[in-house]
Design brief:
Chain B: Keywords: Cell membrane, Membrane, Transmembrane, Transmembrane helix. The complex is a heterodimer of chains A (314) and B (226). Chain A has 314 residues and is mainly alpha-helical. Chain A has helices at residues 2-31, 41-51, 62-81, 90-94, 97-117, 121-152, 157-167, 173-189, 208-211, 217-242, 253-280, 289-310. The longest helix of chain A is centred in the middle third of the chain and has 32 residues, at 121-152. Classes of the chains: A mainly alpha (314), B mainly alpha (226).
C-alpha cells in the first residue's frame, strides 16, 4: 500500500509539473496585462514536441543522445524522494536530502556535458555559465538544508517534515533565514527571472537555453518536462518543509485527498509570489549573479549561526 | 529546555533579533545610499517592535514608551532627516561601491561568530532566555563598525554610527529589559543632536574638499590641485 502511494505520488509529480508552469505563466500574463494562454498549454507544447522527430547534430556523440533520458530519469528519482502529499513513504526512507542534491547534480552534469558535446559556441558558453551558477548555488542550498537538519536532527526529509509538524507553531529564526536562502537558490537553479529567463533566446544572457539549443523533438520535450518537474520540486520543498500543515500522515483516502488539496493550494500561492517577483524585478547582469548567490549563501550561514546562537538549548 | 518550549513572546523576540542581524548585513551589502537609509529605518522599526514585544512579555509598561520613542526617532525621524540630507547634497544617484562585497560579507559572518564566542560566558550565567540575543546585539555593534570601515561616503559612516547605537540599545533591552528612562531619553537626545551636527558637518566637508568621499580627507595639501 505504502509503495503504491509512493509510486502514485511520483506519477502525480510528473503529471502536474506542466500544470504548475502553465499556472505561473498565466498569472504572469495577467499581471502584465497580456492575454493569458490556456492552463494546459504546456501539455500541448510537450505533445507537439513528442510527435516530432529529434535531429542529431553531426558532431554529437552518445552523450547527446543519452543526456535527455538521464536528465529526466534523475529528476524523476529526485521527485520520488520528496514528500508531496504524504510523509512516511518508503521512498523517503531510502534517500535523504543529500541524495536529492546529488540527483540534481547528476542531471545537471549530463546536461552540461551535452551542451559541450555538440561543439557549438553557445553550448559551451551555456555550460560554463550553468556550472558557475550551480557551483555557487549548491553550497548555499546545502547550508540551508543543514540548518533544517540541525533543528530536526535528521537529514531525512520525511522525518524533518514530521518534526516541523509535531512542534506546531514555533517561530524559529533559523527557519526564516533558511527559507530565504532556499528561495534565492530556487530562483537561481530553476533559471527564473533575475538570474536567467527561460522564455527567451537572448544570446547575451541565456544559460539554460544555450545548453539545449540543439535539441529538438522528443529529446527537447524530455528536457523541458524535466525542468518543469525541477521547478515544482523546489516549490514543494519550500512549501512542505516550512509550511507542512495539511500533509497526510496516514494513507487513508481522506487524508491523502486533503494533503493533495493543501499542496495544490500552497503551490498556487507560491507560484503567484514567484510570478510577482518575476514581473517586478529586472533580469540582472550575468556578472552580478555571483553577488546574488553569495547573498543566498550568507542567508543560509546566518540561519546556521542563528540556530546556534539564538536557539541554544540550556 | 528546547527552543519550542519557550513562550511565543520569547520566540518572537529571538526571531526579531535574527531579523535585526539580517538588516545589519543588508546595510553592509547595500551600495546605494538611499536604500541604505531605508534599511536603517527598517532596523529601527524592528528594534521598536522588539522593545514592544519585551514590554508585552514582561508587563513593563515603561518599555512601551521607549518602544514608541525609538520607533519615532530611529524608524522615522532620523531616516527622514538623512534622506533629505542625501537629496540636498545630490547624493541620491551616487553609488558607494564596495570593493570586495563577498569578502566583507564573510567578514561580517566571522564577526557574528566572534561575538557569539565572546558572549558565551555571559549567557551561561544568567537565567534570562532572551539573553541569547546579546550575541546579536554585540554583532550589530561590530557590523556597524565594519560598515564604517569599509565605506568611503561620509553619510554611510553616519548610518554605521547610528546602527552601533541601535546595537547598544538592543543589548540594553534584551539583557536588562531597558535602561532607566533618564538614560534612555538622554541617549535619544544625543543621537538626534548627532544627526543634526552631522548634517552641518557634511556641508562643511563638502565645501572644503568638494565631495563627501572621506578618502580624500587623507590627502594633505594647502591648495586644491585636483
Amino acid at each position: 500500500m505504502a509503495w503504491l502511494v509512493a509510486i502514485f505520488q511520483t506519477l502525480l509529480f510528473i503529471a502536474l509539473a506542466p500544470l504548475l508552469s502553465g499556472w505561473i505563466k498565466r498569472v504572469k500574463c495577467r499581471l502584465q496585462n497580456r492575454k493569458a494562454p490556456s492552463l494546459f498549454q504546456p501539455y500541448r507544447d510537450l505533445r507537439k514536441l513528442y510527435r516530432k522527430r529529434p535531429i542529431m547534430p553531426y558532431p554529437a556523440s552518445w552523450i547527446f543522445r543519452a543526456a535527455p533520458y538521464i536528465v529526466f530519469a534523475s529528476t524523476v528519482l529526485a521527485a520520488a524522494t520528496v514528500p508531496l502529499v504524504a510523509i512516511h513513504l518508503p521512498t523517503a526512507r531510502i534517500a535523504d536530502v543529500i541524495v536529492l542534491v546529488g540527483f540534481f547534480a547528476l542531471g545537471r552534469t549530463f546536461l552540461v556535458l551535452a551542451g559541450m558535446d555538440i561543439g557549438t559556441a553557445f553550448g559551451g558558453m551555456g555550460s560554463s555559465r550553468e556550472m558557475t551558477i550551480s557551483s555557487l548555488a549548491e553550497p548555499a542550498m546545502l547550508m540551508a538544508v543543514f540548518t533544517l537538519a540541525m533543528s530536526a536532527h535528521t537529514t531525512n526529509l520525511s522525518q524533518a517534515v514530521s518534526f516541523v509538524l509535531d512542534s506546531g507553531l514555533v517561530l524559529r529564526p533559523s527557519f526564516v533565514f533558511a527559507m530565504g536562502g532556499l528561495i534565492l537558490v530556487t530562483i537561481a537553479e530553476t533559471g527564473r527571472i533575475p538570474v536567467d529567463n527561460p522564455a527567451t533566446h537572448l544570446e547575451l544572457t541565456m544559460i539554460h537555453e544555450a545548453m539545449i539549443l540543439e535539441y529538438s523533438g522528443r529529446w527537447l520535450a524530455l528536457i523541458e518536462w524535466a525542468s518543469q518537474i525541477k521547478l515544482m520540486l523546489y516549490g514543494v520543498l519550500i512549501a512542505n518543509i516550512f509550511f507542512p500543515w495539511g500533509i497526510a500522515q496516514t494513507f487513508t483516502p481522506d487524508a491523502l485527498g486533503f494533503g493533495l488539496a493543501m499542496i495544490a493550494l500552497k503551490l498556487a500561492v507560491l507560484a503567484v509570489v514567484l510570478a510577482f517577483s518575476e514581473v517586478l524585478f529586472a533580469k540582472m547582469r550575468i556578472f552580478r549573479v555571483q553577488e546574488y548567490l553569495s547573498f543566498a549563501y550568507l542567508l543560509s550561514v546566518l540561519g546556521l549561526l542563528s540556530h546556534i546562537i539564538l536557539e541554544a538549548v540550556r | 529546555m528546547a527552543f519550542s518550549g519557550l513562550s511565543l513572546y520569547s520566540q518572537a523576540v529571538l526571531l526579531l533579533a535574527g531579523l535585526i542581524a539580517l538588516t545589519s548585513f543588508l546595510m553592509l551589502g547595500q551600495s546605494r545610499l538611499v536604500r541604505l537609509v531605508l534599511v536603517f529605518a527598517l532596523q529601527g522599526i524592528l528594534l521598536a517592535a522588539t522593545t514592544a514585544m519585551v514590554a508585552g512579555a514582561l508587563d513593563f509598561p515603561h518599555l512601551y514608551v521607549s518602544a514608541g520613542l525609538s520607533f519615532l526617532l530611529k524608524g522615522i525621524l532620523i531616516p527622514v532627516m538623512l534622506h533629505r540630507l542625501i537629496h540636498r547634497l545630490g547624493l541620491h544617484r551616487e553609488l558607494d561601491t564596495i570593493r570586495h562585497p563577498a569578502r566583507v560579507m564573510m567578514g561580517g559572518a566571522f564577526l557574528m561568530v566572534f561575538s557569539y564566542y565572546v558572549s558565551l560566558p555571559v549567557v551561561a550565567h544568567s537565567p534570562l532566555v532572551t539573553l541569547n540575543a546579546i550575541a546579536v546585539s554585540l554583532a550589530v555593534v561590530l557590523l556597524g563598525m565594519l560598515l564604517m570601515i569599509t565605506r568611503r561616503q561620509a553619510v554611510a559612516h553616519v548610518v554605521g554610527f547610528m546602527s552601533i547605537e541601535n546595537g547598544l540599545f538592543f543589548a540594553a533591552v534584551v539583557s536588562t529589559y531597558g535602561m532607566p528612562m533618564v538614560v534612555e531619553l538622554g541617549v535619544a537626545a544625543d543621537v538626534l543632536v548627532a544627526a543634526v551636527v552631522f548634517g552641518v558637518f557634511f556641508f562643511q566637508i563638502r565645501e572644503s574638499i568638494d565631495s563627501l568621499d572621506v578618502d580624500r580627507l587623507s590627502k594633505l595639501s594647502e591648495t586644491d590641485r585636483t
